[in-house]
Amino acid sequence: MRIIDLLKKESILLGASPKNKSEAIDILVDLQVKSGNISDRETYKAEIIAREEHSSTAVGEGIAIPHAKSKAVKSPSLAAITVPSGVDYEALDGEPSNLIFMIAAPEDGSDVHLDVLSRLMTILMDEDFRNKLIAARNSDEFLKIIDDTEKQKYPDEAAPAKEQSAAYKVLAVTACPTGIAHTYMAAEALEKAAKNLGISIKVETNGSGGTKNILTKEDIDGCDGIIVAADKSVEMSRFNGKRVIITQVSNGIKIPDKLIERILSGDTPVYRYSGGKSESIETGNESFGRKIYKHLMNGVSNMLPFTVAGGIFIAVAFLIDTVAGAPQDSGFGTHTPAAAFFKTVGGFAFNFMIPVLAGYIGKSIADRPGFLVGLVGGFLATTGSTFAKIEGDVPSGFLGALLAGFAGGFLMLGIERLCEKMPNALNGIKPVLIYPLAGLGLISVIMCAINPIMGALNIGLSNLLGSMGSSSKILLGCVLGAMMSVDMGGPFNKAAYVFGTAAIATGNYDIMAAVMIGGMVPPIAIALATTFFRNKWNEEERKNGLVNYIMGLSFITEGAIPYAASDTLRVIPSCAVGAAVAGGLSMAFNCTLMAPHGGIFVFAVVGNWPMYLVSLAVGSVVGMLLLALLKKNRNAPEKIR
Asked: Model-level pTM?
């Protein structure tokens, strides 16, 4: 299959004049529809726009390559327009784009087309080729230029390619998150720069269709150095002891000659792999805050499946008991065998959620040694362990887990540095014995020291809440609602919930109503914000936002944790204010609740349930509006990926 097998005459428009990026997308989508390869225009367009919101697909040099996988695509195809006067497509170099190809890929189809698409990305790096396309007088000429260039660069295999006898001077690895465009463009740029410099090079591409042109041990042993131009993780242990430059994939496209020249100059640090991070990583102008954010997102993305699957299982358990007419008491969700099964399994998933968050933050910082330390530290945060009692009762929740993940990761980096002076004979046991033992001991001390502080805070909060009960009912509702939202499983949340359940035992049911509504608001507010303010969230957050409707209505506050963890300073205050409004209104309307859990499934026993629904709706909308106000748009141009 060749490029012109995916690009038809009816999918080409020469001399287009869109006024802006949005118009250009509309033109290209219409061309894709005209080719007969799109079953649902709006669905496909939504996927294209979602990809653009993540980062602009304008790669500079006048080229833009919008692309998306979608269930609306019947078969892989291309559409193309030329814009002689140029259009602002938000390219990083600030220049207008005048040659735009749109890629349509089936969501569940074969990745065979990716090899063809990689060819397109490669030949587009040739300036003469681009100029010929822009100057083409009609679609036939446009297609002939592509066909002739492709045949020249990729002739039919009349005979197998000969292996290069001499060792490659320079090696490279290119990779981007989507694996469609920039991976291959960086590879082509590096190959072209090496040819101009008279240097032999071999480039491994980590694309969506798999890893191609894999670097062998012989390649690595014989080269002068390796360039890793990647925006995602690649296997690095194989480069131990070699000179390595690690940089962004965009630099592989923009400054390939400088990267190669630096390898040749010998002014490149030797990469040392010891189970943790390397000593030669170069991340350009990446700030410390950006690095912290990337570590945090690694934990959040790995935690998310536990949150979603576990939350839905628990919601199903409540639904089963509701349908069965089971009593809505402290055992609600476990009265029938089927409900007990779903509640138990969902609870298991939730038990893993917080430790996984901390574990993968630690792993992102310190690689495999950091995973153990973060994971155990996160688990100790959930058990509330102290020096006096391993199974303590002062859990620090997800905030404690965040601390454990970062503390554990940086702790392991320090331990690795301290162990550098140990005899080389011990190198083999460092990652399997010394690092785990030292890290485990230190993180357990740290968490056992932190949890009692949380316990003291918990007791103080309970006493404070008790003193407020008689003075200001509405204020107490606001405080309880905010506390349920502010740390989601930590001391504030735990103190409010325990206070509410204790009030049930004394016949004071309005406190539990304020507590539960405060815990329901955060997921619902986030779900509403991802629905009505989509440009504030990335694609993954928008998709998982729908699940938060279920979690919020089921009183599963943990659905908000991934969002709170990824943007704590904006999400938590917004949710806390919304929850406080809902809690205060619940008290003002004299709403009551006799069940300690269940969400919407126990609304049948809520006193004044119509106004309880009003309180929930108002609090959730307030939280949504604050999120919309505080969070930044996600459609601003980012670094090339």
From this structure: 0.50
